[in-house]
Description:
It is a single chain. The protein has 7 helices and 10 strands. It has 223 residues and is an alpha/beta fold. It has a single domain, classed as Rossmann fold (3-Layer(aba) Sandwich). The chain has a 6-stranded mixed beta sheet with strand order 5-4-3-6-7-8, with helices on both faces. Strands 1-2 form a two-stranded antiparallel sheet. Strand 4 and strand 5 form a beta hairpin.
Amino acid sequence: xxxxxxxxxxxxxxxxxxxxxxxxxxxxxxxxxxxxxxxxxxxxxxxxxxxxxxxxxxxxxxxxxxxxxxxxxxxxxxxxxxxxxxxxxxxxxxxxxxxxxxxxxxxxxxxxxxxxxxxxxxxxxxxxxxxxxxxxxxxxxxxxxxxxxxxxxxxxxxxxxxxxxxxxxxxxxxxxxxxxxxxxxxxxxxxxxxxxxxxxxxxxxxxxxxxxxxxxxxxxxxx
Length: 223
């Protein structure tokens, strides 16, 4: 079992990847949902960081000066990823995240952790991108912080859905901002890893669930 398959099963075991009937933030009715807010233990945080670190190291072993996690869900993700990168690969990358509200006392400011400098190459660490709103907000936010270059975006799952046009949201981000985008897994990899394959003795994606997921991708999937 490779690390992608392990990650998919880890999401299921953690109650993060669930199947049923859900409404996404964009208003689409979906047969599956990914909620990284359901990670809740130290062991889960440690393993999650390992998966992100593996993806970062595999796809961008250099060329990044700092990691950024958009508030709120990106905060534990970027901290866990930075810790695992140091522990497993000896890469001591600084990390930072934004405040939703600007602090008007003490040191002030709207960024916590590393203070990016002009010329820094930044990688964003996010959970799941549907419409790409948070990523676009992050890129706009950095224009107020320093003259940095957003080099890459790392997400847990690529839902492979249309954005504003016919392309997937992640492909739109690639085209619009010229950044590299790397998901740990795609929804296609989720289907392949779980279809008729039991997890803890239970089949998660049977014929019915797979059919619903394929119909969803047929309706909302992008290029």
